[in-house]
Amino acid sequence: MKRISLTLDDKLYKEMENAMSILGETNRSRFVASIIAEKISELVQKPMASIIIYIYDHEVGEVAKNLTEIQHEFRDVIRASTHIHLDDRNCLEVIHALGDSERIRGLVTRMSRVGRGLRFLRVVNIPRLE
């Protein structure tokens, strides 16, 4: 284990403390280390696990059809998905992906290009625990 020093401006420090509070995290070192591990996993890790969360308006164009077609193209990395109805128009889906990091990034890139009707897209990459 290595000890490092980190300097943050006041605004960023307050934002970090607020984020820690929201997450219920009390250990600054663990919080910063988890963020660094997540970012590294986005860049270099093969294979990796990811959770892809998105919301779409199913009444806009063919957004639901397009998202489903993309998922079929990436079934080699998609392990499971869930779908819930938020209201009359909006659906929330969560995709559990496992596999080659470049392939998962390709999935997310394709989804982000759906455009109209896709209201929210967020990816959580899970760092490999060794």
TrEMBL record:
The organism's place on the tree of life at top rank: Archaea
GO MF entry, a single one: DNA binding
One BP annotation, GO: regulation of DNA-templated transcription
Pfam families per the UniProt record, alphabetical: NikR_C
Residue span(s) of domain Transcription factor NikR nickel binding C-terminal: 51-123
Protein name in UniProt: Transcriptional regulator
